[in-house]
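U., I forgot to send this yesterday:
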Amino acid sequence: MVDEYVHARPSAPLRPHVGRYSGYRQAGVAAGTHRGLPSPYLTLIFTIDDPLVVAGHPDPRQPPGRYDALVGGLHVTPATITHDGFQSGVQVALHPLACRDLLGMPAGELAGVDVDAAAVLGDETVDRVREGLRAARGWAQRFAVVDAELRRRLRRGTAHPDVAYAFDRLLDTGGRVSVATLAAETGWGARHLTHLFRAETGLGLKAAARVVRFDRARRRLRPGVRLASVAAEAGYYDQAHLAREFHAFAGCPPSQWMAEEIGFVQAAEPAGDHHGTHD
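Result:
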C-alpha cells in the first residue's frame, strides 16, 4: 500500500503567483470520495497515472468527467472527487491574479467551472508535464518539472492594481475587511470595485471575503480543537455562524467533514499557504 502527501513551495520567480505544490500518491488504499472545497486559489492538477475523476462539479449543470489534467476556477460550492484506491498527481494552488500571467486569461473566465487543462495549456504542454512526472525520481523532481513548465509560461499580466490590492487585503485580514473599507481605500465606489473584482477573479468582494474566512477556519479544524475557538479566531459571530457557513460551502457540518476528510491531501495542507478547487 502507498499513501503519500507531500508539499513544497515554488521557486522564487513563481512565489507571487503560486501558493504551493501538493503531491499525492495512493495505491492499494480503500476507494473513497473527497469534497473539493471553495478556496481563494484556483486549482491546477496534473495526474501521474490514473485520471482525476470528478463525480460532481461546483456547477451541477456540468457533467461528471475524467481528467488527465484539470484547471478549476474559484467557486462557492464543493466538488466531489472519487477514486478506486489508486490516484497520483501534483496539484498547484494558483493565485487568481496570476491567471493572466500563467494561463493567458483572467480567472473570471474560469469562475465556477472545471476544465480540461489541455484546453487552456495545450495538449503538448500537458503531455510534456505528465511524461516528466512519470520519469521523475521522487517528489522534489516532480515539483521541479511543474515549476519549470510554469516558469516557461510566465509573462507580464495586466490585472487591475486596485483589484490586486483588494485581494491582498482580503487574504491579509482573513476576509475581515468590509467592501466599504476596500472601496474607500482604493477610491472606487463599492459597486464598481466589486464589478472589477468579479470580472478579474470570478467572485464578488463579499463572496471572496466569505471564502477566505471559511478557508482559514477549516484549515484550523482538527480533532480535539474546539469549534467555538476556531469560529472566534476566524471572525465568525459564534459557533453556529461557522456551522452555517460550513453547510453553505461544504454541504455538511464541520464534524462530518473532519471525520471524512482529515488526512486527505488538501485537508492536511498547512494553513496560510493556499489551495483550490479540489482543496
